[in-house]
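Researcher: We're teaching a course module on how sequence relates to structure. For the next exercise, students receive a sequence and then see the predicted structure as tokens, so they can try to spot secondary structure elements on their own. Here is the exercise chain.
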Amino acid sequence: MERVKIELEFVIKSSPTILFQYLSTPSGLVEWFCDDVNIKGSKQYSFFWDGEENKAELVKKVNGKLIKFKLLDNPSDEYFQFEVTKDELTGDIGLLITDYVDDDEVEEMNMLWESQVTELKHALGLA
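Model: And here is the predicted structure for the students to work with:
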């Protein structure tokens, strides 16, 4: 089974600063992304879904713009990333999500991310 990179972009009608808080802080992430998250030091994250722990390393963080994680159980070149974007023509704020999935799970993961972003919009008071 081959792993493929997916990129999904969503319009989020929120301020970039507030949106980034939901992408980069434990209190923000538990509102929409995971059941719980613990941080050890400045780069070691433990994400919990349904009681299962997934350890990740913070690879890159650009305040207000981008946060990138590497799940420690995944191949070394794979990561997931949240990036705050701004459309130059409309000024709309967006969220660009990058992830890696099995090639036979692309549609399922697209639906999962859409569901997660719906939760994010609810948390932001947008839906």
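Model: If you want an answer key for the exercise: Residues 35 and 49 are 5 Å apart (CA to CA). Helices lie at 16-24, 26-29, 106-123.
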